[in-house]
Each structure stands twice: as C-alpha cells, then as structure tokens.
Amino acid sequence: MKKIVIAADSFKGSVSSLEVADAAEAAILKNYPNCTVLKIPMADGGEGTVDALLATSVGKEISCKVGGPMGHPVHAVYGILADEKTAVMEMASACGLTLVPEGERNPLRSSTYGLGELIKDALARGCETFLIGIGGSATNDAGTGMLQALGFKFLDSKGQELPLGGEILGEILSIDQSAAIPAFLAATFTIACDVDNPCTGPRGAAHVYARQKGADDQAIERLEEGMKNFVDVVKKTRGIDINTIPGSGAAGGLGGGFMAFANASLKPGAQMILEALNFQHIIKDADLVITGEGKLDQQTSMRKAPITVLRAAQQQNIPVIAIAGGIQDILMLNSLGFLAVLPIIPYPVSMQRAMEHEFTIDNITRTLDQLFRTLKYFNTSQS
C-alpha cells in the first residue's frame, strides 16, 4: 500500500470526522509505515461542514454575533477558505433548532435573519462565493429574514414593510430590492440540500417539518397558506416557480428563497464538499479509500457521504472500504460497489457504551488493524 485516502463522516454523538481519520491512520501506519495517508474530513452539509472544509484549507474561522432564530443574540461561526473569497457556513449556527428551547419554538415568529447577517459580514470581508449547509433550521420563513438582513423589503397591501417571521408570508404583496446589497446579488451560492421537498403541498415545508419546529395544526395551515402566497408572489415578480424546484422547501423554504433571489444552486451536501475539496484530484493514484459513518444501511444510498465518496472513487477504479458502528443490509451495500463494509463493535454492548468516545476510537483502530494485518500478510507472501 503506497497511498490510502480516508474520507469518513463523523460518527455522530461519538467521534468527529477528523478523529475517525486519525484512528484509521494509526492502524494503517502500524502495518504500512511508509504509506502516504491523506485524511479528508467529510460532512453532509450539516454539522461539521465548516470544520471539514477548513481542515483541508489554510483558512480561518470567523465568530460573529447575530440575531438568533427568535431574535435573541447568538454567537455564530463560519469559515473563510484560503482563497479569501470563499465563505463556508452552516445556517444552523445562526438559525438552528437547537438554539431555541423546546417550549419557545415557534416557526411563525422565528426567522433566518441571522444567516443574512453572517452573509453580510462575509461580503464585507470580500467573499464572493458561498458554500452553505441549510440543515437543522428552526425556521419556516422561506428565507425572507435572510433577505431582509441583506436589504430586501417585503411589503403588504398598504405598501408597509413587514416584520420578521414565517407569519408574514401570507401578507406579502410585493418585494422591494432597491436597497439590496449589490455584492449579494453578484455573489455565487452553492446550497447543500439533501432533501427534495417543494415549498408547498403534503410534502412541503410546513406539513413535513413545521411541527418539529413548534407549530400546531393551526400554525401549520397558516404557514402552508403563507408559503403558497410567497410562491405566487415570487412567480409574478421574478418569473420563477420555485415550487417546481426539488429542495425548494428545505429549511422552511430557505432553499426556495435562495433560488428566487440569489445566483444559487442546490446540491447534495457531500457532493458540495467533495467538489470544493477537488476530491477527484486528491484520490488520484490511491490504492484504497476508506469511508464510513455511524450507521450504514439502505439510507446510505441516498446522498450520504459514504455513497458520494464511493461514486467518486469508482470513477477512477479505486476500491472503497466502509466502516460503521452499525451495519444493516450488507448485501445491498456490497451491491452498491463497496469492496467491504466492516462493523467496528467487537461484542454486544449497550447503545451508550457503543457511542463512548474512546471506545469508538479504539474500535476503529482495532478493526482496521486486523484488516491491514491480513492484507500485509498476503502481500508479503505473494511477493
């Protein structure tokens, strides 16, 4: 083995993506001390996206005080990559559901204003390209709050400017972007979106996601009607039917807001990260790629990091081995193209024990050590 690339997602609640890579590296170098090991932290566009991209770039982390989803100040973090022109963000840092105590969640009132403030800050620092993960939102305002922070005004039937929150969607009659920040209109946005929900309808933002954000039946219907109005206003004023765009309903319609008012594209999160990292170049001439995440099952085939890594490696005929804390549907996973899928748990344990930090790290190293001991034996015996 001369070159091995490790590109695993985090084992959520247990170890980070980089810690997975460090543990795997220890097993590789124990058996192949002269092997070149490249560690590529992965994420799927949600938590860990900023860390994954900064870990492979001489960039910097920016801390910014912004308005949280319910208007209370929060400290959000984003990254600026080495080119000093590309910003990477997780909208949950500013507008995430975990920022709001369960009893205070209310998507009629919550807004994406804080994300707009993050974008505004990055624009002021000269950023022109944005990579933004939009998972885990507390909002259902179709991105209107974000746009308001960037100079857009949403007006009612009397021409009065509307406040923040999902509750305004049904009152919007027109949109004034005369004061929109020019740099925002000129910037390019790639939005990490791993769902294909539209803005409205049974699979829309309100009916599928608003309840977990604190909405009751009455609020869900109000948000649905408001989103329908927003879609109609955008269609009339922008000539775009965002409801036909898969993923427009993501993050309470934030995906649609980006598509309507920014130079934006929606991509699966892992794909966005691999493209940003130029992953095809990184894995060139590799003997093996190791990927994985906390659990591998049928959902692995649906835009998850391991399947995205696999598809990239297959383009260069590089074998891929996946590791996980738990594995289901092994035959299906093999049929996707994984050379092997390896569970790391050595014996029956409780879920709490299985997710312990040091236990997980030891299990990753032990599992891969056994693999590479075997490979080294056969490589030596055949040479």
Automatic annotation (TrEMBL):
What InterPro entries would the database entry show?
Answer: Glyc_kinase_flavodox-like_fold (IPR018193), Glycerate_kinase (IPR004381), Glycerate_kinase_RE-like (IPR018197), Glycerate_kinase_sf (IPR036129)
BP GO annotations: organic acid phosphorylation
Keywords, comma-separated and alphabetical: Kinase, Transferase
> What top-level branch of life does the organism fall under?
Bacteria
Concerning Pfam families, the annotation shows:
Gly_kinase
- GO MF terms, alphabetically ordered: glycerate kinase activity
Instruction: Provide the family line.
Output: Belongs to the glycerate kinase type-1 family.
Q: What protein name applies here?
A: Glycerate kinase
